[in-house]
Amino acid sequence: MSRAAVLTGLGAWAPPTVVTNEELASCLDTDDEWIRTRTGIRQRRVIAPGEATSDLAVEAGRRALKSAGTTTADALVLATSTPDRLCPATAPQVASRLNLGTVPAFDVAAVCSGFVYALAVGAGLIATATADSVLVIGADTFSTVLSPSDRATRAVFGDGAGAVVLRAGSPEQDGALLDLGLGSDGSRSDLIEIPGGGSRQRSTGLPTDLEGTYLTMRGQAVFAQAVHRMSESVRETGARTGWPLETVDRFVLHQANARILTATAKRLGQPVERFVTNIDQLGNTVAASIPLALADGVASGELLPGHRVVLCGFGGGLTWGSVALVWPQLNTP
Ligand code: UT7
Q1: Would the pLDDT of 333 be above 70?
Q2: Domains with residue ranges and CATH for the chain
Q3: Residue nearest to atom 36 of ligand 1 (CA)
Q4: What is the pLDDT of the chain when averaged over all its residues?
Q5: Distance between CA atoms of residues 314 and 309, nearest Å
Q6: Cβ proximity of 94 and 54 under 8 Å
Q7: Beta-ketoacyl-[acyl-carrier-protein] synthase III N-terminal domain: from which residue to which, for each copy (predicted)?
Q8: pLDDT digit string (tens) for 290-306?
Q9: Which of 2, 217, 290, 301 is deepest in the core (most CB within 10 A)?
């Protein structure tokens, strides 16, 4: 019997500070109606001064381990594009704070597809018997990389973290990751970027460098790519799994914009009611968005054991990826 990675625990954490559309409108040229109708977002969460991505990752990781009924994991994979520092990776610190000992721990940077990429890495560690269990976390704090004057990105992004525990099992078990399809298109890397701070555009130490440390996004072009890539990716994963899309109970897509979810559902010819969403409460939480949507889907009863589920991420890079699984019975953390 072949060895599969099986999802056995789920945890999520969003920082308590809420920023409503009205609060954004009090300091930016925007309003609640524009944000709600163009994005579906009503509010987002942001970290407090002094907090960092690792703090959210630890909270979500702790909850996922508890949900899996364990305190250990053989490896930790952290999907993030807002690490605490550029160097070293954030994952080892998270592993230490979770008392996981000296297990392998590293970051995966695939922006909003990060969680699906990290699932694929975790599944690979299990398939090769490098690990019997892997803690996979998606955590981002994009509030720390947004220009205070950019109304488009500040309306969209929020902070959060979500995590799952993968354990070696069989493909027949509920929770087994059945198909993982990933892709990228680096020729469109300029559509979402933070130009400064890396080896291409180093800091000269001048105050004008600050602009380069902010996220830039060409919203309309990204929107079109998101719909195109996610619908293709979901279609391919459905076909490889042998699941006609009509038989998929829930689609859990990256929560980038409610209109992207509606347009993708339409492109796939599937009712939008089967697309789990929590974007109104949390906005776009980047690598955390899929596990946060899973946690909210479970809490609301939208996502039930036995459901056929397809997860799909899309984001900067450009990158995208999907995974199919039958939703397992989990303990609530
Ligand atoms: O996470 C994965 C990657 N991210 C995404 O998938 C995000 C994809 N893109 C989007 O969600 C949307 O493109 C945005 C929400 C970012 C922007 O919405 P849009 O409907 O595409 O607006 P737009 O960029 O075409 O801009 C239309 C107008 C512009 O004004 P002018 O040039 O027509 O005068 C913008 O400046 O809307 C303006 N605008 C705003 N107005 C009020 C942009 N943001 C705001 C705002 N409030 N917050």
Answers
A1: no
A2: 4-169 (3.40.47.10), 179-326 (3.40.47.10)
A3: 152
A4: 96
A5: 17
A6: yes
A7: 106-186
A8: 999 999 999 999 999 99
A9: 290
